[in-house]
Every structure is written in structure tokens, then in C-alpha cells.
Design brief:
By secondary structure, the chain is mainly α. It contains four helices and no strands. About 75% of the residues lie in helices and about 0% in strands. The model has no long low-confidence stretch (mean pLDDT about 90).
Length: about 80
């Protein structure tokens, strides 16, 4: 079974324009987005068997990805509402 990525653009299709624009001007947001994407790629590699990692460590990575996603969403929607 192949596991698919969870890219930010797929996670936040309604925020596509804000995400692109903010990544160009906000270093913090750009760094978080890059960290999210790298983490997502690693999770997919582990889930597809290309990289080995204990289950507890994989769960920690997934929690970290979720925290990043929540933080990015908060940053993007706070900017959109102001």
C-alpha cells in the first residue's frame, strides 16, 4: 500500500494564495512550511517502508506535523482576518 503526501496546498486549498504570498514575505512562516513539508515527506517514507522507524517515533513525527499544520493555519487565518 502506498501512502500519499499531505502537502500544505492540499491541506489548505482555500488558503493557496495567502500561503504563497506569505511564504515570499514572512521568513518564519516560510521556515515552518518547509519544516512541515520535510516532515511530511519523511513520514511518507517511513509509512511506505523506505525508512525504518519505531511506531512510537512515527507517532511523534505525526504529532509534530499536526502541530505545525495547526500553527501554520493559525498564522494564515489570522492574517486573512485582519
Amino acid at each position: 500500500m502506498t501512502v500519499s503526501h499531505h502537502p500544505l496546498l492540499a491541506e489548505f486549498p482555500q488558503l493557496r494564495e495567502q500561503l504563497h504570498a506569505r511564504k515570499q514575505t514572512d521568513r518564519h512562516l516560510a521556515r515552518l512550511a518547509e519544516e512541515y513539508e520535510q516532515l511530511d515527506k519523511r513520514i511518507v517514507r517511513v509509512e511506505n517502508g523506505a525508512e525504518s522507524l519505531p511506531d512510537a517515533s512515527l507517532e511523534d513525527l505525526k504529532k509534530q506535523r499536526l502541530r505545525l499544520k495547526d500553527e501554520l493555519y493559525a498564522l494564515l487565518t489570522a492574517a486573512a482576518s485582519t
